[in-house]
């Protein structure tokens, strides 16, 4: 019996099931002549006797984690890895026929060689480059032509797994726990496999499940600490729901079990009412008494598990506190956005929008999730604030979950000191420095992720975090994070729900761009803005942009040098990506050439000579949107009840300006607001302001 599951275990999958260090040791031992002697039972159990006298066994039908070894190492050890690698080498060189995968539920199967070490693998296990090369028939419920058929190895769905196979893989206790969760209901995001990323993924509220080996459910893995069984069952059921309800979408948001909708949320209603009261009074006239109301509503939101409204309320409170303290973190535009977000989320729930209510409200999100041993890749850092108060956000890719985590540290300067990104790069955290984390590789057994994807490292005595220097090896990042075709990335961003309704996760728009070439670099002196036009490795154009900040004085010089080839040809750039009128815009975090450059943490006084012009053609649409948004932000700052004379006329003028550039509905929204403002504005004025703010925000985002 040929163990097709073992043939599908590429070095990348083995690293995900153990760690890269063990895989490297096992590969070195097998290739160095220390391969074990194998014996295979008729039922497929594989026994190995190693040169050091250790014996190991992979039982029939068992995943790698079920292996037994006589060595003292816990979990998946190098001996079990050597067993797998040796088995693959023997199958690749021996006379055995091509491996045959078991058929999916409801469909036939065809023969197909294994990529990771089968006859067509080319060079044995060390040369594997992906999932097993299987040929699946058109079986499986709920799939359209875009999801099944053909000869590609990635055309399969975990939803094809039968109940019997699922029960055998996860066990009765885990299945019972998953059933309880299903009865309560949960939401999930199903990301189907594709030729560039053959691993199906399911994002659950408690973590991300990856199905590493086609149709081998025992090799599914969750990034959350604890047993995988419950999460795997929930992920399989989510895939079934996606196959049934949205068979043609590459990424599907689904609701599994529980109630159909979530409408009656008194805590959410209270938060929306409070936001309206702040809007009527304005930041200028919201007194200290609002703190008690904010705290009470916050407690109710927390108790109800409404994570995203809770985080929005926290931002509202932070903006009001910053204004009261005359802090630099206060921005009228941010205040206006959050005052619109709370009612926008409520409207989406009450009106039954396309996005599941649980995704809009974050009701399924735990406050914190301990993560199992994980590997992170530094994607740079962003420094914000003033010289007296600085926040450093270290951005880290989490490849196993195809996501991004953010580690934040805040600093207050002593009297006479001036804090910058460079002076803070040497500050220590988790046994390393911020600079090393931002550009390095992190392996941690103590990571905890918040609902907002903030990262912290627990301080337990057994917890360990190791940081090694990074060389910018970003080629192995998953396609969800690494964009080679910038036009395809722009299309993906366009499909997302509006930002007002998306999960409030940190760095949700951070991506890595694989660069083709840097076409031009220019500097707009009036705005102190550096811009570079770049192409993607597989096509498309984007603008890399950065604006001078006093807390990162050397950033523009460092970014210009890195993109200009001072450290070798730039290969990757990471940053926050958004859609602009002229295409994609990337607010750079780091650049990879022969080294990793993190501009915000680089030394420099900002006195370098930046040359080149920035093409800045007139954009009347953007200008009209900015003018209207500025008026709405001023209204939130001052308060609808304290607006200056002539403000209604200014709204009408801005509305006419929007209509002239073709944004008739945006213009009408401002005109309606002007009509709703009277001597004593009330709920009608609040609704009109919210209507206008939502419309302008969504229009600006969708350009």
Uncertain regions spanning at least 5 consecutive residues? 95-151
- Total helical segments: 20
| Largest sheet data | 5 strands, antiparallel
Question: How much is the radius of gyration in Å?
Answer: 27 Å
Main sheet: strand order? 10-9-8-7-11
Class based on secondary structure composition and strand pairing? alpha+beta
Q: Tally of extended strands?
A: 28
- Average pLDDT level: 85
Q: What distance separates the N and C termini?
A: 57 Å
Q: What would the principal axes of the Cα set say about the shape?
A: globular
What share of the residues does DSSP label as strand, in percent? 15-25%
Oligomer: single chain
Helix % is 25-40%
Structure in a nutshell:
With 703 residues, this protein is α+β, with helices and mostly antiparallel strands. 35% of the residues lie in helices and 21% in strands.
Key features?
703 residues; alpha+beta; 20 helices; single chain; five-stranded antiparallel beta sheet; 35% helix
Would you give an account of this structure?
The chain is α+β, with helices and mostly antiparallel strands. It has a 5-stranded antiparallel sheet. A 5-stranded antiparallel sheet has the order 15-14-13-18-21. Strands 23-24-25-27-26 form a 5-stranded mixed β-barrel. The N and C termini lie far apart (57 Å). The model is unreliable at 95-151 (pLDDT under 50).
């Amino acid at each position: 019996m040929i163990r097709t599951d073992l043939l599908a275990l590429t070095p990348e999958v083995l690293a995900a099931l153990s760690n890269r260090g063990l895989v490297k040791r096992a590969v070195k031992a097998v290739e160095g002549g220390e391969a074990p002697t194998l014996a295979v039972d008729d039922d497929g159990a594989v026994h190995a006797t190693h040169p050091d006298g250790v014996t190991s066994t992979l039982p029939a039908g068992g995943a790698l984690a079920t292996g037994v070894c006589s060595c003292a190492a816990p979990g998946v050890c190098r001996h079990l890895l050597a067993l797998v690698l040796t088995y693959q080498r023997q199958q690749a060189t021996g006379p055995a026929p091509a491996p045959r995968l078991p058929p999916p539920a409801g469909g036939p199967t065809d023969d197909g060689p294994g990529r990771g070490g089968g006859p067509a693998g080319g060079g044995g296990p060390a040369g594997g480059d992906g999932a097993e090369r299987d040929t699946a028939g058109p079986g499986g419920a709920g799939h359209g032509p875009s999801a099944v058929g053909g000869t590609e190895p990635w055309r399969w769905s975990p939803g094809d797994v039968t109940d019997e196979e699922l029960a055998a893989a996860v066990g009765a206790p885990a299945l019972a726990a998953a059933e309880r969760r299903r009865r309560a209901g949960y939401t999930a995001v199903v990301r189907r496999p594709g030729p560039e990323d053959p691993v199906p993924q399911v994002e659950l509220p408690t973590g991300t499940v990856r199905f590493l080996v086609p149709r081998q459910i025992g090799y599914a893995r969750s990034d959350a600490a604890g047993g995988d069984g419950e999460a795997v069952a929930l992920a399989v059921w989510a895939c079934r729901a996606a196959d049934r309800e949205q068979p043609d979408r590459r990424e599907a948001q689904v609701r599994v079990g529980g109630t159909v909708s979530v409408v009656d949320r008194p805590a959410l209603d209270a938060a929306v009412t409070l936001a309206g009261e702040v809007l009527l009074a304005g930041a200028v006239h919201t007194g200290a008494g609002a703190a008690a109301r904010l705290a009470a509503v916050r407690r109710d939101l927390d108790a109800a598990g409404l994570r995203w409204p809770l985080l929005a309320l926290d931002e509202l409170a932070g903006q009001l506190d910053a204004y009261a303290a005359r802090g630099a973190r206060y921005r009228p535009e941010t205040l206006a956005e959050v005052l619109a977000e709370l009612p926008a989320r409520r409207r989406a729930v009450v009106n039954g929008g396309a996005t599941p209510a649980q995704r809009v409200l974050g009701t399924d999100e735990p406050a914190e999730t301990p993560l199992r041993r994980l590997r992170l890749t530094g994607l740079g850092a962003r420094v914000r604030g003033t010289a007296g108060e600085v926040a450093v956000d270290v951005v880290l890719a989490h490849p196993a979950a195809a996501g991004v985590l953010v580690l934040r540290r805040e600093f207050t300067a002593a009297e006479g000191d001036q804090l910058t990104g460079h002076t803070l790069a040497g500050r220590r955290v988790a046994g390393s420095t911020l600079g090393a984390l931002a550009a390095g590789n992190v392996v941690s057994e103590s990571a905890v992720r918040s609902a907002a994807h903030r990262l912290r490292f627990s301080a337990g005595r057994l917890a360990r975090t190791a940081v090694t220097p990074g060389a910018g090896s970003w080629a192995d990042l998953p396609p969800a994070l690494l964009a080679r075709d910038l036009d395809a990335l722009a299309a993906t961003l366009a499909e997302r729900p509006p930002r007002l309704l998306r999960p409030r996760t940190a760095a949700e728009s951070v991506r890595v761009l694989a660069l083709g070439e840097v076409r031009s670099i220019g500097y707009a002196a009036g705005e102190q803005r550096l811009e570079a036009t770049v192409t993607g490795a597989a096509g498309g154009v984007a603008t890399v942009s950065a604006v001078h900040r006093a807390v990162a004085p050397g950033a523009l010089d460092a970014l210009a040098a890195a993109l200009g080839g001072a450290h070798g040809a730039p290969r990757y750039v990471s940053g926050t990506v958004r859609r602009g009128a002229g295409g994609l815009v990337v607010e750079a975090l780091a650049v990879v050439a022969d080294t990793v450059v993190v501009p915000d943490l680089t030394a420099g006084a900002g006195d370098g000579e930046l040359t080149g012009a920035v093409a800045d053609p007139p954009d009347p649409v953007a200008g009209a949107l900015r003018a209207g948004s500025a008026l709405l932000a001023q209204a939130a700052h001052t308060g609808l009840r304290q607006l200056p004379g002539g403000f209604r006329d200014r709204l009408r003028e801005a509305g006419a300006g929007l209509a002239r550039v073709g944004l008739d509905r945006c213009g009408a929204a401002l005109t309606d607001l002007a009509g709703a403002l009277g001597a004593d504005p009330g709920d009608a004025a609040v609704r009109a302001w919210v209507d206008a703010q939502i419309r302008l925000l969504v229009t600006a985002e969708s350009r």
